[in-house]
Design a protein that fits this description.
Elements: E1 11-14, E2 19-22, E3 30-34, E4 43-51, E5 58-65, E6 70-74, H1 81-91, H2 103-112, H3 119-141, H4 145-148, E7 156-161, H5 171-178, E8 188-191, H6 207-216, E9 222-226, H7 233-240, E10 247-251, H8 259-268, E11 273-275, H9 282-289, E12 295-297, H10 307-320, E13 323-324, H11 332-344, E14 350-353, E15 366-367, E16 375-377, E17 388-389, H12 391-394
Parallel strand pairs: 7-14, 8-9, 9-10, 10-11, 11-12, 12-13
Antiparallel strand pairs: 1-2, 3-4, 4-5, 5-6, 7-16, 15-17
Helix pairs in contact: 1-3, 2-3, 9-10, 10-11
Length: 422
């Protein structure tokens, strides 16, 4: 008879496994499903935890084998936390009772057996399962994940600061933000100076251009320009022509699915176009690389379906001499997975760092990799992914129904962070 770890909320049968599961009422932080297995190395239970980060609920998956080894994964997706819980439950038939070393078969079947594709939601759950399986295998072997996938090729990676621009959208506001102590460690910063503005833009408000010109005159730092798909082609073409050499890339000026437009823009842009965070298939990267080399590739390990898929993007970049800067606007397990990716590929130029601008309590929920003087070193890495989640701290921050970022709403950049007064 299968059993379940019981807690608050109503349970009902998990038909595929014979297990029972816990419901997830508003505010309740986790759901657990457990089955009986005879193989001590098999996955016996999974728990889903939602952590109510004020700007995006983080969704963590914990897998535990019958002999007690725990692996963690993450499948955070803006605005879809509870939907992700259901997706994990429906796909759990593929991993419950299986050995973690079968992760390639498990994840392949999760993708192909259904003959349906649920996009980033689907890929995120696949990624979380793969992360957790690799974490278990690394811990069992006493090795970091990179050692299971070929070994590291570099000892550290630079980071760039993101999330620092929760300020008044004016030249003076950005000058003040740049003077804060937490900015000192970063030589490169990413910024979205547009607020909620969209094209046609300059005729309505030239403030973003003034901010861009101010930042571009900095003698001490370089910048990446985040556009969040806000521009039309004419505005984007005008913008790239005024960018100074202090700008290292312009990120998603057009919708990510407008590959033709991005390639056309790259043809005459003096700086690279960055894209890829929303891609869910390696073939999308292959298609754009076939048309332009003036590009920075930005795979998101969750949206793409896991570390091994992101590593395939890095191998593509290595072949063509391109740069990879993984998208990492998620939680601590995503951070740890991106660090493993950086260790595995020389194509990874930098990692994204939101850490100093997250709510202070977010640094208490996990022991993971943190930048020092703008650099993350990985000369000595712990077994598995290298992240430890403190579940008791996660439970202190349950699901937040307002924990999502409306990227085209006024004041979105303040991320509803009560501690920031937003």
């Amino acid at each position: 008879m299968s059993e379940c770890q019981r807690g608050e909320g109503a349970g009902w049968p998990h038909e595929e496994s014979g297990a029972w599961r816990i419901g997830l009422p508003d505010g309740y932080p986790s759901v657990t499903v457990r089955v009986d297995v005879t193989d001590s190395h098999a996955i016996q239970s999974y728990t889903i935890h939602i952590c109510g980060n004020p700007w995006k609920n983080w969704t963590f998956l914990r897998l535990v084998t019958a002999d007690g080894i725990e692996g963690v994964g993450e499948c955070s997706l803006n605005g879809f936390a509870k939907t992700t819980v259901t997706c994990i439950e429906e796909l759990s038939r593929y991993f419950l009772g299986k050995r973690p070393e079968e992760y390639a078969t498990i994840t392949a079947r999760m993708l192909t057996d259904l003959y349906s594709d649920a996009g980033q939601l689907h890929r995120g759950v696949i990624a979380a399962v793969e992360m957790a399986c690799l974490d278990i295998l690394g811990k069992r072997a006493g090795l970091p994940v990179y050692a299971l996938l070929g070994g590291k090729v570099q000892e550290e990676t630079e980071t760039y600061g993101n999330g620092w621009y929760r300020v008044a959208h004016s030249v003076e506001g950005f000058r003040l933000a740049l003077s804060k102590p937490e900015m000192e460690q970063y030589l490169i910063l990413k910024v979205d100076p547009f607020g909620s503005r969209t094209s046609p833009m300059w005729e309505k408000d030239a403030t973003p251009v003034r901010i861009i010109q101010e930042l571009g005159g900095s003698p001490f730092r370089r910048f990446a320009l985040e556009c969040h798909q806000r521009l039309d082609f004419l505005d984007a073409a005008a913008l790239v022509r005024i960018l100074s050499p202090r700008w290292i890339w312009i990120e998603e000026p057009l919708p990510w699915w407008d590959t033709d437009g991005l390639v056309s823009l790259a043809d005459f842009s003096p700086i690279p176009i960055a894209t890829g965070e929303n891609f869910t298939d390696l073939r999308q990267f292959q298609a754009i690389v076939a048309q332009t080399k003036n590009i920075v590739l930005q795979p998101d390990v969750m949206n793409l379906g896991g570390l091994t898929q992101a590593l395939a993007v890095c191998r593509l970049a290595e072949r063509y001499g391109l740069r990879v800067c993984p998208h990492d606007a998620q939680g601590p397990v995503s951070r740890a997975t991106c660090v493993q990716l950086a260790a595995l590929s020389p194509a990874v130029l930098m990692l994204e760092d939101f850490d100093p601008w997250n709510a202070p309590w977010t640094r208490e929920i996990a022991t993971t990799f943190r930048a020092e003087r703008g650099v993350i070193g990985f000369k000595e890495m712990p077994p598995g992914l290298g992240v430890t989640i403190h579940w008791e701290k996660v439970r202190e921050h349950p699901y937040d129904p307002n924990g999502w970022v409306p990227l085209f709403e006024a004041g979105w950049e303040r991320r509803r962070d009560k501690e920031e007064g937003a």
